[in-house]
Every structure is written in C-alpha cells, then in structure tokens.
Amino acid sequence: MNLLDELHEEAVSLIPPVYAELPSEEMEKKIWKIKKELGSRLFIPGHHYQKDEVIQFADCTGDSLQLAQAAAENKEAEHIVFCGVHFMAETADMLTESRQNVYLPDMRAGCSMADMADIQQTERAWEQLTAQFGDTIIPLTYVNSTAAIKAFVGRNGGAAVTSSNAAKIVAWALKQKKRILFLPDQHLGRNTAFDLGIPLKNMAVWNPVKETLEYEGNPEELTILLWKGHCSVHEKFTEKNIAHIRNTKPEMKIIVHPECTHEVVQLSDMAGSTKYIIDQISKAEPGSKWAVGTEMNLVSRLIATHPDKEIVSLNPYMCPCLTMNRIDLAHLLWSLESIAEGKEINRIKVSVEVTRHAVLALNRMLSI
Q1: Is the dihedral of CA 156, 160, 165, 166 positive or negative?
Q2: N-terminal to C-terminal alpha carbon distance within the chain
Q3: Which of 7, 11, 296, 342 is the most buried (most CB within 10 A)?
C-alpha cells in the first residue's frame, strides 16, 4: 500500500483556509504560545530536511530513526508532532507507548522512495524470487520504507538498515543466507555491497512493474537482489556535476549521500549518511571547501551554520525535496491548535499486527 492508498483509508483532514491568511509572524507567536502551554506534554521532532521555519520549533533534530527513538525515550510527551514524513511518523508510533499519540501535520508529506515498494508488489516479488532461488534469500529494508514493508522484512527473518549502519547489517545478512533482497533503494544497496567487496556482476535489479529480475550472466552467482527504487533528490546529482566541480574548483572536496548513484559515489571524495556529512563538515578546518550532494534544505543550513567554510550544493540547480518539504508554519500551527482543542487531526496509527513484525526488523538491526 502506498501513501495515496493510506490517505484514502485514514481519517485525513484538510487544513482550513483561514490559515492561509495568517502572517508568518502571527503563526510563529501562536506556535510558541502553545508550546509553552503544553510544556512537556508536547514533543516536536524535526527531520534534517525540514524548512528552517519549522526546524526552529523542533525539540530535537536528526535522521528518521534517531527522531523516532528520541520520541520513544520521551515518556512525558502525550503528543508527538512529527515534522518529517509519513514513514517516519509510522516508526515513531510503533516505538512509542499506546498512550502517546503521533501526528503528522500534513498528510501529504511523504517519501517517493518509500512509495516505490508497496506490500502487494513485495509479496509477489518474494513469491517469484523464492521460487527461483529457494530458501537462500534474506530481506533487508532501508528505514525509508513503509511500516508494511518493515513488517514483511521482520516476518521473513530480515532487518532494517540505516545509511549509517548499512554495511554492518548487510555483512550480518550474508552470514544468514546466500542472497539479500534489498528494499527499496537500489543505490544504497549497491553502494554498500560494493564497498564490502561484492562485484557489480553479482548484483541484479528487481523491476516491480515488469516483475522481472534484470541482470547479465549466471543467475546462480547473484548475491544482491536490489529493488528498483531510488531517491528522487539524490538521483539528480550527476557525473557532470562532479566534473564541473573538478574543473572549476579542484581544491573542493565532494561529499555525497550513499543514496546517490554508484557512479557519483565512486567519483566523490567521501560518502556517508546525513549525520556523517554534518559531522565531517563540522570538524573540518576553517577555510575548507565543500560540494555537498544531499537535500537542499540541509545544504542551506550547513552554509548558514559554517560561515567560515565555503559550501555549495553539488548540483547548483537542486531544489528541496517536494514531498519531504510539505510541512510549513500553517500546518504545524493547525496541528498544535487542534491538539490544544482536544482534537485528533492527522494522527498516525499503525496496527498492532504490523507493529509487532516491523519492530522485529528494527530490533534485529539494533541488536546487530
């Protein structure tokens, strides 16, 4: 089930038009006031890719799993208003207690990558792949996936992965079974496996639309089965972008996220998770120069935070992620005012059954 299907099934409310008429300054004052009134009963996690106008109200910032874990550790909060996207709020709901409510201010806030693998497609793929390869496959899923996909992986003995720990989890998985089905981002799977010494000829791509496995050579030699999904933002960084930086500013270091294509990662100086990128630039010498291949809101924040360094986007024409970038002041205010009035607007609820299996996948990752 993709995000659009979920929106039809859930009680989704549309923001009242009155919020479009409010000046930004008035909305900010109202948000600060409600935050103060609710105090420790309210917790606002903010993902790194969110707009500055929203991030200013975040009680903590970080990657998706880090924020869900922070929400789970905050036992005082009754209301968790997740400034991120749908799959992140799902994870927060699964990890928090039943008495805690998780809300997504704008239900249109999603992840195109997560929506590239729905549960029906995945079940059909698993049936065909296990028919071909037998009991030799273990599934792994990037945390940028729906709760249903995490549950599928948990049921079938697999684990979740983050961009920070993908190498450890892939290495673990290859000790369990001969092959891995890696969902839903082919680039993170390919880059991680390649770094572990697995040649590209031992990797194939599962096309969920055509329901075929795309590869050349002997299928018995296949080790990594990559779901044909990708991040619409990170795929826009190209070899031409790197060539331009090398030609115009050869002293500049290029650092990218492993959701970028294999070719881009191989041509870059460094590649790693969002936290890795932030840490590397933070500890770099003043005057150092960086071209960064990740989401534009984060790049802009790095530029503002480190005026002593020269930082540019690897792709100068990059825009913020449209689906990650949905939450704005108006939706945040609407969500908080609804909570203050005792209303449940855009609450995220994951079923007990899905939660049970999805948490298995998350716990396996954490135990590794």
Answers
A1: positive
A2: 29
A3: 296
Domains of the chain from N-terminus onward: 3-110+324-350 (3.40.50.10800), 114-231 (3.40.50.10800), 234-313 (3.40.50.10800)
Q: What is the pLDDT of residues 228-242, one digit of tens each?
A: 999 989 999 999 999
> Tens digit of pLDDT for each residue in 28-69?
999 999 999 999 999 999 998 888 999 999 999 988 888 889
Q: Please give the single-letter amino acid code of residue 137.
A: I
Largest CA distance in the chain: 64
Q: Please give the model's pTM, rounded to 2 decimal places.
A: 0.91
